[in-house]
């Protein structure tokens, strides 16, 4: 297939940063093309299937590359540079779904009581309170703010249920950043991200990454908690129909809880990012 320029000239995660074990000749797929992640000394290099060197950025705990020539830098997460934060790479989880579906699911809080029962939500606390969403034109990002939801266990460090405040940020077509109440440090935000590597239009690899204020929880428990949450989502994602994310407003009926999803789809159309999307009804 012919890839759209918006997809080719974008940055994507393909491996964890080299301070983690990185196998020589680590092969993977990006937008249907085979690529290899190599180490030259301590510096990562990514090689296309035709042997050419691809651009590389090491940031947010991962190696990022592009099949094209991005004219923009990778988005920043300034909070990840704050002293005292635990930076947690959670590995990769492969999901048979559109990379855009994976991001949209991350933005959805209405499913918390039904998919993440007694952790991120519970009955009868199922109502999604009114929140605000807008596309911030000055930075070309989707933001959802003033999101609140009752959660029995908002984080691994949480002791008992709390009403959690959220902010969602979409700075990249296949990545999202979540800012949420930090139980051990009121006034700060925990940062939980979803970096999605599009393998094919209906297959992706998800790289969760976190920047937390948590001095108590063992690293393995933090990773296990986040992987458990996403694995609960995987069966839902792999059974969604259609498999690609519909961008035509008439193909799926949104509710008030879907404001972020609606803005995200509108933003993708504006950017011309159609890889993993369904443009018209079948």
SSE blueprint and pairings:
Elements: H1 5-8, E1 12-16, E2 26-30, E3 33-40, E4 43-48, E5 53-54, E6 56-59, E7 62-65, E8 86-89, E9 93-95, H2 99-107, H3 112-115, E10 132-136, E11 141-151, E12 162-172, E13 175-181, E14 189-200, E15 203-212, H4 219-237, E16 245-246, H5 259-271, E17 277-278
Task: Describe the structure concisely.
With 282 residues, this protein is an alpha+beta fold. It has five helices and 17 strands. Keywords: Dioxygenase, Oxidoreductase.
Would you mind describing this structure in some detail?
Strands 8, 9, 10, 11, 12, 13, 14 and 15 form an 8-stranded antiparallel β-sheet that branches. This protein has 5 helices and 17 strands. The model is unreliable at 114-118 (pLDDT under 50). The chain has 282 residues and is α+β, with helices and mostly antiparallel strands. The radius of gyration is 18 Å and the shape is globular. The longest helix has 19 residues, at 219-237. It has 2 domains: 1-74, N-terminal domain of TfIIb (Single Sheet), CATH 2.20.25.680; 85-282, Alpha-Beta Complex (Naphthalene 1,2-dioxygenase Alpha Subunit, Chain A, domain 1), CATH 3.90.380.10.
């Amino acid at each position: 297939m012919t890839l759209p320029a918006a997809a080719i000239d974008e940055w994507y995660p393909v491996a964890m940063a080299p301070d983690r074990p990185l196998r020589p000749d680590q092969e993977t797929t990006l937008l249907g093309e085979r690529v290899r992640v190599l180490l030259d000394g301590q510096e990562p290099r990514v090689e296309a299937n035709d042997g050419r060197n691809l651009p590389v950025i090491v940031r947010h705990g991962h190696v990022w590359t592009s099949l094209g020539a991005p004219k923009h830098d990778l988005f920043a997460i300034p909070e990840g540079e704050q002293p005292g934060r635990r930076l947690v790479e959670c590995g990769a989880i492969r999901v048979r779904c559109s990379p855009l579906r994976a991001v949209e699911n991350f933005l959805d809080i209405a499913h918390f009581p039904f998919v993440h029962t007694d952790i991120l939500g519970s009955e009868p606390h199922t109502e999604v309170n009114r929140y605000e969403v807008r596309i911030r034109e000055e930075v070309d990002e989707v933001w959802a703010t003033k999101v609140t939801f009752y959660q029995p266990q908002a984080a691994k460090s949480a002791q008992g249920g709390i009403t959690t405040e959220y902010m969602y940020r979409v700075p990249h077509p296949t990545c999202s950043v979540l800012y949420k109440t930090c139980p051990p440090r009121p006034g700060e935000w925990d940062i939980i991200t979803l970096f999605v590597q599009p393998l094919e239009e209906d297959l992706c690899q998800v790289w969760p990454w976190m920047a937390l204020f948590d001095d108590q929880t063992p690293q393995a428990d933090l990773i296990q908690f986040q992987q458990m949450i996403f694995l609960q989502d995987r069966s839902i994602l792999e059974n969604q129909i259609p498999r690609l994310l519909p961008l035509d407003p008439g193909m799926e009926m949104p509710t008030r809880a879907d404001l972020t999803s609606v803005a995200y789809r509108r933003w993708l159309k504006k950017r011309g990012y159609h890889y993993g999307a369904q443009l018209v009804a079948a």
